[in-house]
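Final report, closing paragraph on structural work. Over the funding period we assembled a curated collection of sequence-structure pairs, and we close with a single example.
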Amino acid sequence: MTEFKTIICLTDSSKHSNHCIAGKEVFEDGIGGSIRPVSNLETGELTPRHFQLKDGNPLNLLDIVKVPILKKDDRATMPYQTENFMIDEQTRWEKTGHFPKADIQRLIDNVDSLWNNGDRPGMNDRMPVELVMKKIKTSLILIKPEKIELKVSEEYKRIRVTAFFSFKGFDYQLRVTDLSVLREFSRKKLSDHQIQTGTLFCISLGEPFKGFCYKLVASVFYL
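Its predicted structure, as stored:
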């Protein structure tokens, strides 16, 4: 039986050449935890047809949408992604409003770090799968980072954007998967760097890959 969860859309990021969308759940009396709608595809990514809106308009960040849900996603490969819910692919999503960008700091998560730190070769960018499976209960965090630098490079003939930043005394170097940022930087020179202040990141912890789960900057909000 289909039910609906209303969310504030906080990510539209790249996943296997498709989309990963997630946000905060909206209730009548306030805002709850994170929700990540997933499909029945092997790794749960969404294609554009999965999140078509009833009014025919594109889904944008901070849109408030009703998402048709069938059940909690219980695939054994990602038990730490407790916010994953399987969508009803036969029912269209419905936009009910838009969350004011001026109020987005209300949605920031009160955390002291991005899960566990210390593993290399990147700068606090990954965690061993066994640690994730044992200790991590959520895979989405909205933060306000410091000392941000975005660097553009090319990898296998595709644009790669890397975020260098600090948060609560730790330095990070994470890959950016925000589709709007990737499109923006595809038009810039590869040597370009961009430093932003007053920016929020939505950080996602990806699925296991060669023994590790990688931290990703799933969305960038310029305030």
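The chain has two domains: 3-104, 106-222. The domain at 3-104 is CATH 2.40.50 (OB fold (Dihydrolipoamide Acetyltransferase, E2P)). We thank the funder for supporting this effort.
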